[in-house]
Amino acid sequence: MKFSGKNVVRSYAKWFGVDMLCAVKELSLFGVTIDPAYVAQLKTTFACRSSRRPKQPVADPQSVGYGVDWDENFAYVAGRTEAGFPYGTTWEELEAEATGEERLTPPGGDEDDKF
């Protein structure tokens, strides 16, 4: 079967959703001959692209673990329900415990909820 397009590497990369260098490697495995000058040009182009990318910002040291063990509502996330909702110690409960205040509701729930 003969390829009838303009650029076999670009077409292959677009069709299979891979980058151009990966397309070159895969096509060479299939026995397609590709101009070595074109491959060298692709390598220098990709090297320049990666050097132009901005560096990732460094995370704040206090935000490490954010969303895993704590978030904006919970000082400690003990786990998640089957529906994915977190449960654990809230920031208010932690502050109340730190200041020595008593809880407003008993640990078993509200007294009004009895049947």
Concise synopsis of the structure shown:
The chain has four helices and two strands; from the N terminus they run αααββα. With 115 residues, it is of the alpha+beta class.
Give a written overview of the molecule.
The protein has 115 residues and is of the alpha+beta class. The chain has helices spanning 8-16, 20-29, 36-52, 91-99, and strands spanning 74-80, 86-90. 39% of the residues lie in helices and 10% in strands. Strands 1-2 form a two-stranded antiparallel ribbon. The protein is elongated. The mean pLDDT is 78.
Itemize the secondary structure elements and their pairings.
Elements: H1 8-16, H2 20-29, H3 36-52, E1 74-80, E2 86-90, H4 91-99
Antiparallel strand pairs: 1-2
Helix pairs in contact: 1-2
Average pLDDT for all residues: 78
Computed CA radius of gyration, to the nearest angstrom = 29 Å
Strand % is: 5-15%
User: What low-confidence regions span 5 or more consecutive residues with pLDDT below 50?
Assistant: none
From the spread of the alpha carbons, the general shape counts as elongated
Class based on secondary structure composition and strand pairing: alpha+beta
Number of strands: 2
Largest sheet: 2 strands, antiparallel
What's the SSE pattern?
HHHEEH
